[in-house]
Structures are given as structure tokens and as C-alpha cells.
Design goal:
- The complex is a heterodimer of chains A (78) and B (389).
- Chain A contains 4 helices and no strands.
- With 78 residues, chain A is an all-alpha fold.
- Chain A has one domain: ACP-like (Non-ribosomal Peptide Synthetase Peptidyl Carrier Protein, Chain A), CATH 1.10.1200.
- The longest helix of chain A is centred in the middle third of the chain and has 15 residues.
- Chain A is globular.
- By secondary structure, chain B is mainly α.
- Chain B folds into 3 domains: 136 residues, no CATH class; 74 residues; 132 residues, no CATH class.
- The radius of gyration of chain B is 22 Å and the shape is globular.
- Classes of the chains: A mainly alpha (78), B mainly alpha (389).
- At the A-B interface, helix 3 of A face helix 5, helix 11 and helix 12 of B.
Chain lengths: 78, 389
């Protein structure tokens, strides 16, 4: 799951750095914008069958690859 | 009468904040006092126009019924798009009727704050649909919807964020921090609104209004833009500061918007709670919806369509006048252009960090923004009418 998710993220950010530094701030570093964020939510829904509503997460809950992985894992386990 | 204007409002407000500050400094809960003050302030502002008070109450009853019924439906039946859309339309209907009636210069169900109140109800409904809000208490909902500092003109807080502060009891140290930040915002806001904005208004109507030649139009755009900023940012800062004193950490609405280097940056700094509402509740959802339905077009085309739709609706929300529609489309199209340029242009990618590029981009953006305000002001249609005669 983790690898797949990082793959998706790298594609959306157009940068492989997200695979290596899991604590990088995606919004601060201009890696993820509103558009890519929407696509990320959809990709997660399609790949893992997990619906994450845009209002369910604040920016600071999903601003690093690490946090995104944790969130999806938590949803998958629930 | 309206909130944060006129001496009468402040004559009531300032002494009424003293007990709140004392309670806060003693580390006591502020909730009861805050709610009582909200009732008193609403009566003060709306009683001169009792019909508006009646509409306000009716809309709140509608909001209570809608949210409660929708929540119980959501819990029993899960996500049902049709019911969800029906609930949204019912919540929006009074606003739509009111705005349409305004086009014909009649007032139907109009009351101070309807636009903002309506947005808060929409947020609650959407978050119920998302499964993020799982319980609604009438008292909690009403204090979120009606909190007087932001009732009529924002900022637009989020229900779960508000609830956290609404139920919190701050220690003396925490409250002292809130007090400082609150007073800073109130003083800054008052300076913006009663000094800077008044000065801009004076300049605008004494020296510029009424002339139609191009240099005057440029001057109008800049002075009106500054007036709008000082007026609205000043109002918002006073509202936010007062909220802090009452124990609610209301989000800021402005963050030095004229320093923005591009249009996207501008919308992260100008009327922030409105633009983030549109980002989270319209744009993001539109993009997910388009992806789900496998909509045609490239990623950038979909994004452009999303941005234009987003800003078009934002324009309409201000009112159904040609200049608001144009203002929305203007920003939507230019945001789409910005998006395509920043994604496609190698020139942009090479130079975007360089000081000269940032300086040029800032200057261009400032002029785009000011031209947008000129459209927003409606002055152009007046000029147009003059020229046609």
C-alpha cells in the first residue's frame, strides 16, 4: 500500500523526492497544490476504495507523505 | 444598523467586553456570557428592522430542521446524493430567491447576513454528508451560525473548529495570549476602517468619481481597491479580534494581499475564509466529481473548467449583477491562464525563483487585481452608460 501510494504521490507532485523524504511539507514546498490535492483524494478512492472527504482533513493533517500514509492506513483498518 | 459600525454599536460593545475579559482572566468558561451577548447584540442590530429579525429566526428554524433531519437520514441510509442535493437546494433557496428579487429591486426574505449564514448552513450539511459531523446539538449549531462577531459579514468559521473553542475553557495564560492578539486586531482593524478606509473613500469621491478618462479609471481602480481592502480587512480584523476576546479563535480573513506574486497567491491572502470555502467545497469536489465521471479533457483542461466555474459562482454569490458575474469570470479565466502557464511554461520553471521575475510577476499581478476591483465596483457600467449618452 505504502509503495503504491508514494508512487501516486510522486506522479502528482511530478517529483520523486516525496518517496525519499517522508516528512517534507508538500504544500510549503509547492509540491502539491489544490488541483493535485483533489486528484490525490480521487486516486486514493479509486486505488484503495477509501473515501476521504475534502472537509475531513485539514491541510496540516495531510501536509507530509508520512501523514498521508498514516491516514490511508487508518481508514483501511477502520 | 449593522455590526461594527456606528457609535451606538461600539457604545454597547466595549463595556460588554469587560466582563468577558474578566471571566477570561479568571480562567472561567466564557460560553454562557458569549451566547447571552450574541442574543443582546442581535437584538440591538436587528430590532430597528423587525421583519429582518423575523426572517433571521425563520431561516434558523429551517437550518435546524434541515440539519437534524438530514443527519438522521444520513445515519440510517448512508450517502444518498439525491437527498444531499435536495438538502443543499433547500438551504440555498432563500438566498437564491433573495438575490434574484434584488435584481428587480424588490426585497424578498432579505435580511442582514443571509449570504454568510447560508454558507455556514451549507458547510454543516456538506460535513454531515461527508460523515465528518456525526451529531448536531441545537444550541451548538445556533451558536456557530449566529455568533454575532461574524454573523453578517464573516469571517466564515468552520463548525468543528468553532466547536472546539466554543466548548473550551482557557487557562489564565492561554486567555492572556488571546487577549493580546484580540486587542491588536481590534486596534489595527479600527485604524484600517475608520482612518485609512475613510481617507480612501474621501479621495475617491472628491477627486476621482465622475471622470471617465483613462488616467481617472486607473486612479479609480487603485483607490477603490485600497478602500475596499481597508474597509473589509478592517471590519474583519475587528470581528476576529472581538472573537478572540470572547474566547473564539476566529480565522483571519486577510494576509497582506497586495504582496501576492500571482493570482493564486492573491486568493490565499484575500478574503481567505471565502476563498478556502470555495476551494474545499466547490473546486476540490468538482475535480473529484469530474475524475469519478471520467470527464473528457486533459488534467489542465479540467482544472481550468473547475477554476472558472469556481470563481463564477463566487462572483454570483456577491449578487446577480453583471459586474459581479464579470468579476468572477475575470478571475476564473485568469486563474486558469495562470495554472496553464505555471504548469506548461519552461520559462516560468526556469525563472520563477529569480528576484527580477518575482518583482515583475508581483507588479503584473497587482495591476490584474486592481483591474478586477474596478470591475467589481460597478463603476465601469456607469462609465459605459455615460459614454452611450
Amino acid at each position: 500500500m505504502e509503495e503504491k501510494l508514494l508512487e501516486i504521490l510522486a506522479e502528482l507532485c511530478e517529483d520523486d523526492v516525496v518517496k525519499d523524504s517522508l516528512t517534507i511539507d508538500l504544500f510549503e514546498e509547492d509540491l502539491l497544490d489544490s488541483l493535485a490535492f483533489a486528484e490525490l483524494l480521487y486516486a486514493i478512492e479509486e486505488q484503495f476504495g477509501v473515501i476521504i472527504a475534502p472537509s475531513a482533513v485539514a491541510r496540516e493533517d495531510v501536509n507530509t507523505p508520512e501523514k498521508i500514509i498514516a491516514l490511508v492506513r487508518e481508514k483501511l483498518d477502520a | 444598523m449593522s455590526f461594527f459600525s456606528g457609535s451606538l454599536f461600539f457604545i454597547f460593545l466595549i463595556p460588554a467586553l469587560v466582563p468577558a475579559v474578566l471571566l477570561g482572566l479568571l480562567g472561567k468558561p466564557l460560553r454562557t456570557y458569549r451566547n447571552l451577548l450574541t442574543v443582546a447584540m442581535i437584538l440591538l442590530v436587528y430590532l430597528p428592522a423587525p421583519v429582518q429579525l423575523l426572517y433571521l429566526i425563520l431561516y434558523c428554524v429551517l437550518a435546524l430542521l434541515l440539519t437534524t433531519l438530514f443527519l438522521s437520514h444520513r445515519k440510517k441510509k448512508g450517502r444518498e446524493p439525491k437527498v444531499f442535493y435536495a438538502a443543499l437546494i433547500l438551504a440555498l433557496l432563500p438566498l437564491i430567491v433573495c438575490k434574484c428579487a434584488a435584481v428587480f429591486e424588490v426585497s424578498v426574505f432579505g435580511f442582514l447576513g443571509i449570504s454568510y449564514l447560508c454558507f455556514r448552513v451549507l458547510i454543516v450539511l456538506i460535513e454531515i454528508h461527508d460523515g465528518v459531523i456525526t451529531s448536531v446539538s441545537p444550541a451548538g449549531l445556533l451558536s456557530y451560525l449566529l455568533f454575532f462577531t461574524s454573523l453578517s459579514s464573516g469571517p466564515i468559521d468552520r463548525p468543528r473548529r468553532f466547536e472546539k473553542d466554543d466548548t473550551a475553557v482557557f487557562s489564565r495564560e492561554e486567555y492572556t495570549e488571546l487577549l493580546y492578539r484580540g486587542i491588536y486586531r481590534i486596534v489595527l482593524g479600527a485604524f484600517y476602517k475608520f482612518v485609512c478606509s475613510e481617507a480612501m473613500y474621501y479621495v475617491l469621491h472628491t477627486y476621482i468619481d465622475g471622470y471617465q478618462s483613462p488616467p481617472y479609471l486607473v486612479a479609480y481602480a487603485y483607490v477603490y481597491g485600497l478602500y475596499l481592502f481597508f474597509d473589509f480587512a478592517g471590519y474583519s480584523a475587528m470581528a476576529t479580534g472581538t472573537s478572540y476576546l470572547l474566547g473564539i479563535r476566529m480565522p483571519d480573513n486577510f494576509n497582506r494581499p497586495f504582496l501576492a506574486v500571482d493570482l493564486r497567491d492573491f486568493w490565499n491572502r484575500w478574503h481567505i475564509t471565502l476563498s478556502s470555502f470555495f476551494r474545499d467545497f466547490v473546486f476540490t469536489r468538482f475535480m473529484i466529481f469530474a475524475a469519478r465521471k471520467k470527464a473528457a479533457g486533459s488534467r489542465l483542461q479540467r482544472a481550468s473548467a473547475g477554476l472558472i466555474l469556481n470563481m463564477f459562482l463566487m462572483g454570483l454569490w456577491h449578487g446577480i449583477s453583471i459586474h459581479y458575474v464579470l468579476y468572477g469570470l475575470y478571475h476564473g479565466i485568469l486563474l486558469a491562464v495562470t495554472e496553464v502557464f505555471q504548469k506548461k511554461s519552461s520559462f516560468y520553471k526556469r525563472n520563477r525563483q529569480k528576484p527580477w521575475y518575482i518583482a515583475c510577476s508581483w507588479l503584473l499581478n497587482l495591476n490584474i487585481v486592481m483591474l478586477g476591483f474596478l470591475i467589481f465596483s460597478g463603476y465601469l457600467s456607469e462609465v459605459w452608460k455615460e459614454l452611450m449618452h
